[in-house]
Predict the structure.
Amino acid sequence: MFRRVLHSRLALAGIAIVALLVMLAAFAPVLAPHDPYGIDLDRRLEGPSPKYPLGTDALGRCLLSRLLYGARTTIGAAFAVFTAVLAMGVLIGIVSGLAGGITDAVIMRVVDVFLAFPSLILAVAVAGFIGPSLFGVLVGVASVWWAGYARFIRSAVLTARQKEYVEGARVAGTRGIRLVLRYIVPQVAAPIIVLAAMEMRWVLLATSSLSFLGLGVQPPMPEWGAMLSDARHYIFSSPRMMIASGASISLAVLGFNLLGEGLRDALQVKQARRR
Amino acid sequence: MTGRATFKLLALVPVLLGVSVITFSLMYMAPGNPADILMRAYEEAPAQESVQAFRSHFGLDDGPCTQYVKWLSRVLRGNLGVSFKTGESVQAKIIDRLPATLELAGGAFLFMVLVSISFGITGALCRGRLPDKGIHILTVLATSVPAFLLGLVLLYAFGVLLNVLPVTGRIGPGSFLLPVVTLGLAASCVYGRTLRAIIIDVIEQNYVKQAYAMGLSTRRIITGYIMKNAMLPLVTLYGMSMGHLLGGAVIVESIFSWPGVGKMALEAIMSRDYPVVLGYVLFMTVVFTMSSLAVDMAYRFLDPRVQEGIGYDPGGDGV
Amino acid sequence: MTTILEARSLSVHYQTPVGAVKALDHASFSLGEGEILGMVGHSGSGKTTAACVIGGFLEKNGRVENGEVLFRGENILFLPWRRRRRILGKGIFLIMQNSASALNPTRRVIAHVADACSSGEAIMGRKAVSKACALLERVGIGKDKQTLFPFQLSGGTKQRVLIAMALALRPAVLIADEPTAGLDAINQATVLDLFGTLKEESVASVILITHDLRVLTAIADRIAVMYRGALVETSNTADIISKPVHRHTQELVNAMKTIHGS
Amino acid sequence: MTCREQRFAAGYAIRPRLITLSILLCFLLCPFCASGGSTLTIGVGRDLYEGPESETYIHGSTNVWEALTILDGNLEPAGWLAESWRMQDGGRTWVFRLHRGVRFHNGSLLTAAHVVANMERRMKHRRFDPRGDLREVISVKAKGELNVVFRLKRPLPFFPALMAYYGSPIFHPGVFDAKGRITRPVGTGPFRLGKVKPGETIELFAFDGYRGKKPAFQRVMIRDIPDAQTRVFALIRGEIDAIIDVGGILPSQINELKAGRDIELKRAQLAMTHYLMMNCRRPPFDNVGARLWLAGRIDRKRLVDKLMEGTGIVAGEFYSPLARKWAPHDRALRSAPEAKKPAPLPKIPIVILLHSNFQQRLPYDLIAQVIAQTLREEGFEPRIEIKETGAFQEALKKGEFHLSIQPRNLLTGDPDFYYSSNISSSSFRNTGFTDPEADRLIDLARHETGQQKRRRIYDRLASIMAANMPMIPLYHEVALYAHRKDVEGLTMDAVFRPDLAAARPSGGSVR
C-alpha cells in the first residue's frame, strides 16, 4: 500500500506540501522573524525589506510572521474539525453498524436529516448563530460533516461484518470493543484514510470561507481567510497582502488535493459521494 | 414511476420534519435577545415598552415547544412568518430574491454541465496528450483556489484591470459571467475529471468498439454511444452539486453584490433576523431535497435498465 | 475468384505481466470474394486476435510483430486510425465476440440498425429508421421487439440484430466472431441460416470464427484450422471433414464425429 | 411506431442541444448595456429599505420624506416642513407652523391634521418611537390648517431639535395600517419612491409637485453594495456615479480612489463621534483612576493620523464640536488629570467588544487591535470579541465586556441627547457610570429653558465628565464620499443625509 503511494508523483507532491505546511506551522515561533501581534503604526503597509521579508500589514505587523502563525490557526482548525468529525462519525457509524435494528434505523434517519441540508448553508447558519468565533466555525463545519462520515463508516462496518472471519470471531464469542478493534477497524482504516485526505480540502475551504465571511476568528489572531478578507481593501496599494494570504490558502488546499487524489488512485478506493 | 415518486416523497416527510426541528433549534443556539435586535439599537436605545410590544407582537414570550409547534403549523400553511427587521413576509422576501439565486445557480449549473462535458470528452479522447494534461493541471489549480479568492481575482482582473465586465449586481447579461464562473469553475473541473474517467471506462466497452466497427461518425459515437452511457452516473453527481451551488451562492453573492437569497441570508444572520434565516435554511433545504428527488427521477427516466426494474444499481458505476 | 482480404505471415504478441504471449504466429490466409471462410480452433488458438487485428481493435497490450493484412490489395495494418476508420463498416465489418455486450444498453434495437443504415450513406432520420425496420423484420424481429432495449432481448435475438446491422451495412468483408456461442440449437440454426442468406445475396465475403467445427460444415466454403496461433491447415470444407491432414484437425473432426455421430 | 418515437429511437435529439448552446452563447456574449438617461446611481453599503416594521419604511437618505425641522451646519434646528415655531407656557407647549402649499407625493396638501396623525401613530405604537422622542408629549393637536400644538409633561427647551429629521418623519396618514405600519411611504420630499428591490436597488423619481427647487436628475437609483471593495470598483468603473453614506468609503481606500482620475473625493464632518465605552461596573474600569489612566494612555492623535488617514478629528470634547452653541468652554480631555496605572488583573482578559455590523464600514477592529496592544504592553490580557447584533446587545446588557468601541450620533444637536441617552443612570446605554450629581444636572438642564443657565449646567457636566471619564471620545467622524466628475453639487450634511435634489450633471445640462 505505502509503496504504491510513494510511486505516485501526485501523492508525493501532496505529502511534501502538507508536511511543509505542518512543519511551518509547528515551528512558527522559531521561524517567524517577528511577533505576529507586534503592532508598529510607523511601519504600516511597508513593502518587502530584509527586515520584513513580505512587508507589513495595515497595522505594521510582519506579514510573514502572521502567515506562519496563521498556518497554525488555519490548518489547526481544519485538523480540529476533522478530528471531531472523524471521532463522531466513527463512533456513531460503528455503533449504528453493530447495533442494527431500531438504534441503527433512528441514527440513520438523523443522518438523513443532516444530509438533507445543503452543507455550506447549514454551516453558515450554525456558525452565524453561535457568533463570529473560531469555535463557531468549528461547530458549524463539524455539524455538517459528521453525518456523511457516520453513514460511510456504518456501511464499511456492515461490509466488514459480512466477512467470514468476522462472523467466525463473533461465533467464537468476541464481542463489543474487542471485535471492533481487532477485526473491523483494520478493515475500514484504508477507506477512512483516503476519505480523510480527500475531505481535508473541503474542510479547509469551508473553514476559510466562513472566516472570510467574517464568521471566523477574532482579531488579532492570524488566520488566512480572515487575513485575505482584510487584505482586499488594499488590493490597489498593497496587492502583495492579498496574494500572500490567498496563495497560502490555495497552497494548503492544493497539498491536500494532491495528497487525496494520489492516495485514492494508489489505494483505489471509491470516493465517497458528497455534495 | 408514479408509485415510486409517491413513495420517495412520503419517505421525505420524516426527513423534512427533522430538518424543521434542527432549523428551528438553530434559534436557540444563538445568544442574545431578538427583541433588542428589532429595535436595531444601533445608534439609539430602544425604550423598554417598545421592546415588550415587539416581544408580544412576534410571540417570543412562549416556551420553545409552543413556539415550534406554532411556527411549524404556520410553515405548513405556507407562511414562513415576517422579518423581524423589516416586517416583510419571509416567503415574499425569499420569492422576491429567489430568481436571482436560481439564475446564478442555474447559470453555474449550465456552465458546469457544458464545461465538464467538454473537459471530460477532451480529456478522455486526448488521454495523456497535451489537452488532457492541461485540463488536469487546470483542475488541480481550480479546485485549490477557494471561490472567494477566485471571485476577487476575477473581479479585479476583468472588472478593474481589463475593464470589460461589470463588477456589481445583476444588470445586463455581462454581470452574469463572473459570478457564474466563480461559482461553477471548481465543480466543472471536478466533474470534468470524473466524466473523463467514466468515458475512458465506457470507451473500453464492447458496444463502443462495435459502434466503431460499424464505421459510424465520431459525433454519432460520442453522442449516441459514449455520452449517453457516461452521463448516467454523472447525472446523480450533477444533482448532488445543486447543494454545493446553493451553498456556494452565499459567498459568491456577497462578493458580487448579487441580490439573491444567499446575500439576504448572510445579512439576516448578521442582524439576527431569525424568521428570515430559518425560512431561508428551510426553503433551501426543500429546494435541494426536491432537486435531488428530481434527479433521481430523471435518472430513472434516462436509464432504461432502472426504468424497467432490472435491478440495476445506479451507484455501481465506479464513480 | 478474386481475393478480397489476405493476411500474410501475421504475428501478434501480447505483453502480459508474466512475459510476452504469442497469440498469432506467422498466420497466413486469404478470403475470396463472396466466400465464407470458417476459422476454427480451440480457445486461445488466436482466432479472436486475428479478427481483432483485421478489424483494428487489437487490445492495448497487443502488438503486431510481423506480417501484413491486405484489403483490396492495400496493407491496412499500419494505417493511421483516421484512415483505418474509413474502411470500417462498409469495408470490413467485425461482429464482436459476446453479443451480449456488443449492443449499447441505453440504445433501442432499431436505433442500432438505423445507425448502421446511415453509416457512410446519405440516408438519414426517418428513412434510415424505416429501412432498419424492414431489415429487422427480415431477420425475424417483429415490430413489437424493435423498440426494446438490448438487455430485454435473448442472446439469439441480439445476434440477429447484429446480422441485421451487417445487412444494413453490406460490408465487403464481414467477420463474425463466435456468432453462435451460447445459443441453443434452434437459435444456432436460425443464425447460420442468416449467414447463408448473406452469402446467397452476395452481400459480403464472410469470415466466420467459431470453436465448433460442426457449425461450419453446413455453410463454410473453406475452413482454416488454427492451432496455438498458427494456421495449420486451410482447405475446402469437404476436404477438411473427409481427409484432415494436420493432427489437430484430425482431433477436431474426430471429436465432432464422436459427439454428433455423423 | 409513431413518428416521434422513431425520431427518439434513432437518437436525433441532438438539435435542441445545439440550439440551447447557441442561445446561451448569444446570451453570454451580448454586450453589457448600461442604462442611460438622466439617472443618478448611488452606491451604499447597506439596505436603505427598512420595511413596514420600521419607523420610516425607508431611510431618510433617500430624500423621500421630510420632517418638521432639520439641523443646519451648526446642528441648530432649521425649518423644513415647519416654517416657524414658538414656545409657550414656559416650554410646556410648542406650536409649529407649517409651510403652506406643501404637497404629498399623492398630490394632497399637507395640513396640521396630517402631522397630528403621524405623531399619534408613533405615540400609540411605541415601537415606532425607539428613542422615545415623544415620551414627554401629552397631546398633539391641530390648530387650524397649519398649526400643530404639542403639549408636554415638562418643559423641553430643545423640542424643535428633538423633532429634527428622524424625530418627526411625516407621511401621508392614508398609508398607515391598523398596526401603525407604513404600507407605502408617501412623503413630501423631492423624490418619490419607485420600485424597491430589497437588498438590491431603490428607485426614486423626481417629484414634480415639490415645493422647492426641482431636482436635476429625473431618476435616482440607490444600489446596495455591501462589500466596500466592490463598491469602490463599481465607482471606478462608472457603474455607479457616487458613493455617499457613512462608512461608504473606508480610509484605507483613499489611495485607490485618488488613482481614479474621473473621481472626486470629498469629506464631510459629521455629528458622529466614536467612543471607547468602558464598563464602569467591572474592574479595572470601575475605578475612576483606571479610566483616566487609559484616557491618557491612548494616543488618539496617533490613531487618527495613522489609521484614519485624516478622516477623523481627534476628540477633545465629548460630543460633536459642530454644535457650536454647545461647545464646552473647557475642552474636557485636555484637562484630564494625570492618573496612576491600575494593577493588571491576574489572568482575567480585558474584553474589547465590537459590533460586527461595523466591520465593513468603520475601522474599529484596527483601533481595537492598537488599544489591545497598548493594554498588553501594560501587562493586561486584552481580547477582542466581534459580535453580531444579538450577541452584542446581550453582552452589553449583561455587562460582559470591559471596553467597547461604538459610534454615537448627536441627532438633535443638543447636549441633552448625548447626556440623557449615554450618561444618565436610567439610560439604556449607560455602561455602569452612576453619579447622582450628574443625573440631577442632566434632568435639570433637560427642562431648563433659560439658555444661559443651561449652558452653565452643561459646563458643569463637562467637568464632571472630565473628572470621571465614563467613556473616552476617540474621534469625530469625517466621512468620505465620492462621486464621478460628471456629477456635481452632491453634498452630504452632518447627519449624513445626501442632498439628492441639489445634485446635477456637470455642465449644468441634464444628460
About this structure: The two ends of chain D are 65 Å apart (CA to CA).
